[in-house]
Write a structure and sequence with these properties.
The structure is a single chain. The protein is an all-alpha fold. It has 7 helices and no strands. The longest helix has about 45 residues, at about 145-190. It has helices at about 25-50, 55-80, 85-115, 125-135, 145-190, 250-255, 275-279. It has a domain at about 20-120 and about 145-195. InterPro entries: Kei1. Keywords: Membrane, Transmembrane, Transmembrane helix. One of its GO terms (biological process) is inositol phosphoceramide metabolic process. GO terms for molecular function: inositol phosphoceramide synthase regulator activity.
Length: about 280
Amino acid sequence: MKLTLRPEWRLYPLASFFGVLDLKSGVVVALLFALLNKVAGVYGLIATLTGAGGSFAQISLYLYSTVALVAIVLGLKAVQREDAKQTLYFAHFFFFDHALSTAWVVWFAIVWWFQTPHDGRRQANSAAQEAMMHAAPPHEPMTDAQRVAAAMAIWQQEKGFAAAIIIMSWLSKFYLALLIYSYATHLRKGSYRALPLSRSSPLIPSSVPAHYDDTALGLGEDEDVDDFYRVPLRTPVGHKPGQGSAGSLADFVSAPRGPGKSALGNGNGDIVFDADERR
């Protein structure tokens, strides 16, 4: 059983990146930033393995970022090749990555906003942090009440800005997921080159290989694809009056002969020469 949304419930695919960039260019630029984010996770894993320390959640996230880095590289190649099928698979993966990142951010927000005391006490999570604490220059001693009051004043100023950054990052990644889905949808429908900011296709009909499928998905005839997405890239070849086609010769040969005799089949054996050939 195939589960699909009704046509009236489906989101209309985006046509550009904020109305200023081509859809493909916007996806590539956004994926480069996502690639940089995953590279930072790899550096976090290296720091953890070299003694920086970290919780199990942090280490698992660093390991996942390493695997996701490879997936983003492959997805970036599929986007540049305009491969509709692989781009759709990558869109599914990116949405899964966004959902996983959302769960981790929610867990981090609960721990940081509600479980962390924010009382100004120094905490060392590793030997390197402890060494940095001892190497810090001396400061004026403070009582516990003064330290808590100063730390809470800083926290009141920073927590709103931190929440705004997290929300903006979440919305940006959600928009990027919609962007990739829109790009994959346009590739599957064959409408990407018809978008206002898209460049014309460099391919010509003669350069299309003979084994190229009728749809951008490259699926077999036995696979059931919704007509909303499956749009043929080539019009069927057929003979119409007033239009030339590849099937015209076959139609001419297979056409029934009329009752009249052809002028070429008189059988009189005479050969007619042109006036120029007699000279």
